[in-house]
Amino acid sequence: MRELFRPRRMWRRQQELKSSYDVVIVGGGSHGLAAAYYLKRDHGIRNVAVLEQRYIGSGAAGRNTTILRSNYKTPEGARFYDQSVKLYEGLSQELEFNLLFSQCGHLTLAHSDRAMFVMANRAEVNRQLGIDSRLIYPEEIRRLAPAMRLDQGATFPVMGALYHPPGGIIRHDAVVWGFARGADRGGVELHQNTEVTGLERANGRVTAVRTNRGTIKAGVVLSCTAGWSSETCRMAGVSLPITTHILQACVTEPLKPLLDVVVVSSQMHVYISQTDRGEILLGAEIEPWTTYRMQGTLNFLQEVCRHTLELFPQLERVRILRSWAGLCDLTPDYSPILGATEVENFHVSAGWGTYGFKAAPIVGKTLAELVATNKTPELIAPFALERFYEDRLVSELAAAAVSH
Question: Do 191 and 139 belong to one domain?
Fold first, then answer.
């Protein structure tokens, strides 16, 4: 009888590494797992190994702030993230896993005439691409977020906001578990506590991946390692124009429903949402120094609390439960590096800064297509590595004024 009530495993027990795989994916986060899932679903490729140096979802996927949106500044960026949001909308049903997706809407506040101009410009770009995004004023903001302070006596009075109704939040660990389970059911092997220590090259290709559990031959290698991308790519002889910083966030004790929309202030460098558990999630800008040391700072807590209370003074006595830091890899134009490299069979998903989790489904789908067809999908062509050598930058700086 006890056997009947044993809970089902999320995925199979870890197996021994085989001597070779058609595809080896370095990184067991949302991008790597999504790529593995779509390789099997769309192209029937199942001889795939996902290598994770710790446990599944222990990196950026487990340290993000769950916000989804597609209201970016450039046509290339907005079009790309819009496809990702659309995939997210049907992902719970497809994976048969509750991802706790809430399209509660997304507000980017404007506190100056210049900010209002920028928001109007972004809204116009979005509308031309069929993305629901528009400029709204305090009266409508008050209806969407009645708890927020909007009087003119505030330190940073709110003049308006870019309102993006399809934006929202999703449970980040559920996304990871869902993709991992889906990939595993398709025959993909998930290898935790498997650290990549080197990549072997010959004749312009990666021939093998060295790990702490042995060396395996690989037909194609995908690097999906977020903040560690520079280190992984260096093993393949690929240089990336990336700097790595930490991003911090924190959550409060659970509260009754207070905020049913994501609130972002570019000028105050703060973003605020309420989780499915009732916690108020607070985040800020990346730290300005480069580091791989994922430790929180008192300065972050001081600044994020100060600006949060300027918008929501009623939270003054709410307790902070926990804070964390994750790695962000930034490119010069604040857009990702996605696709093929000069090494024939070595492809990357890197340079996401704070945007990576939003893009997980479409990254997986397009990388799977690249691997299966050896052709770069049109949607990701603007984000190729060679753009930095051909002066074809895709600048998302105006949409990256605060990290979310």
Answer: no
Provide the residue range defining the domain that includes 323.
102-164+244-330
Strand positions, DSSP E, 224-311? 243-252, 262-265, 270-274, 280-284
- Residue 247: closest CA among 203, 282, 201, 207: 282
pTM given for the model: 0.95
How many domains, in total, are found in the chain?
2
Separation of alpha carbons 49 and 20, rounded Å: 9
DSSP state letters, 343-389: STTEEEEE--TT-GGGGHHHHHHHHHHHHHHSS--GGGGGG-GGGGT
| pLDDT single digits (tens) 349-387 | 999 999 999 999 999 999 999 999 999 999 999 999 999
Q: 125-162: string of b/e by CB count within 10 Å (b at 16+)?
A: bbeeeebbbbbbebeebeebbeebbbeeeeebebbbbb
